[in-house]
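Example record used in the benchmark description.
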Amino acid sequence: MKRGWITWDQKELPRPAFEARLNMVRQHLAYRELPALAVYTDVWRSNQARRSSNFMPYWNRALLVIPQEGSPTLLCSLSPRVYPWIRSVTILDDIRHSPNPVQHLLQMAAEKNWKKIGVLGLRQLPYDFYQQICGDTVNISDVSLPFAPDEYELAMYRHAAKLAREGLMEELAKGAGMLDFEFVGLLERKFRRAGAEDLMILITNGQSVPLPASGATLNRDYSISLALEYRGHWVKLARSASPREPAPVHIHVENLSTSYPFAPSERLETPAILALRFESQSDRVRRFHGDTYWSGSEGLQLL
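Model output (structure tokens):
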């Protein structure tokens, strides 16, 4: 469970998968002529560093430093007493206590004679990190990595979609007549027990877009929008309990393979994990339905 019981199932995600991912990063660094890449991570933005190392913080902020040659280093201000635990659930061996991760990164650059450093998503750094890292004499390059999911990532996306889809369909018919708080709580318990790390549930009786529960009694035309995370892999679904056949009048697209928070997309990008939500309207009632898709070389495929 996210920031609860954190484990590493190496049958689901074996160690060699991380080496293959790191090699792709190193190839990109070589192409950009960069000696190292710094990846920011915190409670809300953990998935980029997690993809390369399996590190996910309970709290605090850190930098994962991936050199073009050698193993990655984690710079974090967590107490050294938790480092054995971090090593047990990640590929990391080099973990350095860093009350000021940016300062430590710049010291590393000086020691290793790195004249420039790549930063993943430079403009998305917290303001204090951005000011500090851009105010130094080291040349900083904004880096974005191409989305190239491996078989393990796609398997986790598919598992997350299956978990969300089947769980929602099992409970959808029970919602009408319940308070939205009660129904959302029922779903929360179900998905958390099934392994969802994070969960966001929005709901509507058809007079608005899906919103947080507010104490309303659900009618037979209610719709629910669900965002579910499984081991760092997000999917989004929407379903209407209405017996009426949907006739979409509006389509909303989000690219879930970008960094969190996910932004709307104006087109069906490839390669990407895309969440499509469709809106139907009749008798002044808005109904929502949608799912998550893998957009690859063979076109758009339901996860």
